[in-house]
Each structure stands twice: as C-alpha cells, then as structure tokens.
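> tool_call: predict_assembly(chains=four)
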Amino acid sequence: MTTAPKSGRKMIRVVIAEDQVLILGALAALLEIEGDIAVVARARDGQEALAAVLAHKPDVFITDIEMPHLSGLDVAAELKRQRTGTRVIIVTTFARAGYLRRALDAGASGYLLKDSPAEKLADAVRRVHQGLRVIDPELATEAWSEPDPLTDRERQVLRLAGEGTASGEIAEQLRLSEGTVRNYLSEAISKLGANNRVDAARIARAKGWL
Amino acid sequence: MTTAPKSGRKMIRVVIAEDQVLILGALAALLEIEGDIAVVARARDGQEALAAVLAHKPDVFITDIEMPHLSGLDVAAELKRQRTGTRVIIVTTFARAGYLRRALDAGASGYLLKDSPAEKLADAVRRVHQGLRVIDPELATEAWSEPDPLTDRERQVLRLAGEGTASGEIAEQLRLSEGTVRNYLSEAISKLGANNRVDAARIARAKGWL
DNA sequence: CGCGACGCATGACATTTGTCAGGCGCATCC
DNA sequence: GGATGCGCCTGACAAATGTCATGCGTCGCG
C-alpha cells in the first residue's frame, strides 16, 4: 500500500497508547502492514503507556489524549521532563486549539486528528522519526489563536459545575467557601461571554480548555 | 494471528462505516489481515453507507452510531425495512442500554464496544455471518433493564437545559410558558433522581435516553 | 360515558445561582 | 518597599431555578 523496505534492520520502533482496545488493535494493525514500522508495545492508559515507553525506549510514541489515570498530554510532559528522546505523536478526536497548544508545550512532535486519512499515520511516524514536526493542517492555522483565559481554580470549579454539581458540593470538594465558588463561576462566565455556568462549561470544553 | 483459510472463494464480504477516517482505515486493516474477510467498501457517513450497502450487497455491514447525516441506527433501520439480508454490527464507544435497545429494534445482529478486544471484531463478523447474534457481554446483562421514563416534552426540555439554555429561552424555543418548562424539568429531575437540571441531563445522556 | 394520562398553564414559595463591592494575606517584580 | 496580581474570603442583593398545589382541555380506553 505504501513504501515498505523489507530489511529486517532499521525498523522504526513504536509504542501505542489508546484506551479503546478495539481501536488500539486496529491502529496497530494499520502500522504493522507497513514494512518499516514495528509496534513493540501497546498501552490502555497513561500509566501503562509511561511504563511501556520507559521500558522499551521506542523511536516514536503514539498516544490518544483522553485516557484513564494519566492523559496523553501528561505522559508527553513527563517524557519531556525525563529527556527520553522518544518523539511523541498525539492522535485525537478533538480539533481544539487548546489541546494542540498544550500538546506542543508538552513537547509533542506531531498532532493528528482521527478523521485525517489513514495513510497519514504511517507518514507521520516516519517524518517525526526524522526529526520533523507534523501538525494536522486543520489545526495548524487556528492554533495560536485565543489563549485559555481561565485560571486553574476557575477550571476546576467549572469542570464540576458542568457536571451538575451544586455550588455547595463544589465548595466542599475543593475546600473552598461557597461564596468563593460562586465568585469563580461568575468570573468564568464573564470571561467566556456565557449566560450561566453550564453554558460556560460547554464553551470551555469546545475550546479544549477544560 | 487468527484462523485464516487461504481460499480465494467464500470470503465474507464486508462494508464498514465510520466517520473518523483514520479509525475507518484502521478497522479495515484489522479485518483485511484475516484471510476470510474482504472489505468491499468504506463509508464516512450514514448516507454513503446506505448507498454502499445497497450497491454492494455485502454479507455484513459494520457501522458506528454517531455519524453525520444518518446515524448508524437509522441506516440499520432502513436496511431492515428494505429487507436487504445484510447483517448489521454496531460498533460504538457507548455502553448505553438505550442505544443497544434501539440497535436491536433496528434489526442489528451485533453490538460491540470500541473497548472490547480487537480479535472480537473478526469473530463477530464470522458469527453474525452465520446467523448468530453477538452482544457485548458488558451490555447483555443490563440491556433490558430500565426503560426510558421520560416523556417527549421532558426529553426536549432536558436536552436544551443540558446545554446551558435558560428556562425562558427554552420556553420561547418550544413555545411553552416558562413555568411549564420548570415543571417539566422538575419532573425529569425527580424521575431521574438528580439534584438539578444539569445533573438530570448528564444522567439521561449516560443512559442513552437523550 | 367517565376515568386517567398527558400537555399546558398559574401562582406562591424556598433555594440556588449570579453579581458586586469590598477586605486580607502572600508572592513577585520593578 | 510599594505596586500589582492572585487566591481566598465576606456579605448583600437580584435573578434564575426547583417544588407544590391546583386547574383546565383533550385524547384514548374500557
């Protein structure tokens, strides 16, 4: 289907992380049919992924963002901190500027959307392995648009509020007073130009800030 | 990797529909490595899928639920109506009783979660092709449990409320009085055992009722 | 026919939410 | 060392939300 040198040596060694096992297997199959790429390990969540990468020291690490325990972004950041030299490609459903920004901050070399063509994945692996950067064109443009205006607290509070947690509950969980919680929400609502807490949470989620 | 008869004849002919192209390609790759399955067409949305199935008359049609234009459930229902004889397998992220129920009503023969093991997919194709039914075990039990307790109006109101639309807005959009909207929400909240409208919407979504 | 669901509506009330104006302590940065 | 920003808090008020009781038509069903 694509360029595929047959030599047994010089294979690009890859670790994949993805929480939906069926998709994980499918992605692995997609890469395995390329003659120059070898999937050396698979992981179902962030912790497994981190362990697998540290153990196998692959050339390239492909990961989803939303996973149990540790997000793909967290794993990428940790790998950057540890200077493992493994290049990271984020593969996700979400075309959100905030996610891309965080991905790049976390030292990722690639950012691919799950609705880009299938051949792109193997291509991306090869390019990233050569030291190039691969950003999905759909994101590349709007990437550095609005930065996240929310503070950490506002984010925490908004996340809970968006699930229907009442102010009192939120206050308890975060060890804040209820008034403070309402203040943060009010701030977030005004920053995002929303009509109420739920609207604000929806907007923040859409931008990838949540 | 699995049983794979090499004969050129008697291949199981499959059409796959999935809106995330990368996943579509990956799933196809996963099936192609099985010697007895041939992917004869791929579709990116419900309309393409319907056309492809009618054109190719495959043995098995594998589809996601959430797709543009027509959902996988809609396509399944239409195929049932037209008595094409093609068996349908739903592959989705969501372990929601409501979805499974609707899938079975729509005549689907299989319901698989994206986080079941990868080998299950080819297995499911073979079983369904033989006329068997394949339901993901995680769903099979709770499947025929609670039926949706919400009335149509409650559903409509709850959907909007869950996006942060204020009562007054909802009233306008649905041509109801604001008091009535609050009544429906109150009803829904109590039926679902929720704490407030947002919580109710969250619960309803999780059950696949929304 | 009459009964019971359902859709829609009031009005009144308690509670939660959203907004504003402050105030306190603690960093950080000229 | 003072300005500035941030996190956290208070209190008070207006607006939105949630709850109840109650009422009225209109169906469909036994």
